[in-house]
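Design job #97: recover the sequence.
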């Protein structure tokens, strides 16, 4: 997997849990999108910040919250299951990034994902 995921923080609201996840890219990109499984076992949580992540796609689908990738943009491609998500990248001109090694701006940058789930999901 060329997308490494790590919990950054979690906001515990009354009825929901908002999880912010850092995605760091490495290796090669394909125009099919880079697989980005949001299953809890694929997300590192080195500081035990996340008491629980949802077991299914929440009602509000996960999304890209912020991207620090040198002028490129990122989209999280939705899926029916948490294991089916993918990240796609676009140039500043709006064309999809071509297949091949990630540009340094992307591999050296970070994309932050946001997942909001009802408590108990």
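Job complete. Output follows.
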């Amino acid at each position: 997997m060329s997308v490494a995921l790590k919990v950054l923080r979690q906001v515990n609201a009354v009825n929901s849990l908002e999880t912010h996840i850092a995605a760091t890219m490495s290796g090669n990109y394909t125009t099919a999108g880079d697989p980005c499984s949001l299953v809890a076992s694929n997300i590192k949580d080195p500081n035990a910040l996340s008491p629980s992540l949802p077991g299914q796609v929440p009602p509000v689908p996960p999304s890209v919250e912020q991207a620090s990738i040198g002028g490129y943009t990122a989209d999280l491609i939705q899926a029916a299951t948490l294991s089916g998500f993918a990240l796609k990248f676009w140039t500043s001109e709006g064309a999809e990034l071509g297949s091949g090694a990630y540009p340094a701006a992307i591999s050296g940058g970070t994309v932050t994902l946001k997942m909001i789930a009802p408590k108990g999901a």
